[in-house]
Description:
Blueprint: H1 2-9, E1 12-18, E2 21-25, E3 30-34, E4 38-46, E5 49-60, E6 63-68, H2 77-92
Parallel strand pairs: 1-6
Antiparallel strand pairs: 1-2, 2-3, 4-5, 5-6
Amino acid sequence: xxxxxxxxxxxxxxxxxxxxxxxxxxxxxxxxxxxxxxxxxxxxxxxxxxxxxxxxxxxxxxxxxxxxxxxxxxxxxxxxxxxxxxxxxxxxxx
Length: 94
């Protein structure tokens, strides 16, 4: 179980927005990525919880696909859906 958590936690990132950039962090390092590099937003459901993946082109220092750690308030479906809609609107504005 511990090995599983270690392997999969490498994929998890915290993402914030600062002006025209995403700030991506894995808890040890952080990187600024221009918002216009965002190319897709994907939602995956697993056992009642949702995971948000965002994809960049060109790839970030963490790779082209980033899994976002969502705060507890994101578990409200309404709020989570608003965040997904916002991120997808950033892609349409490019």
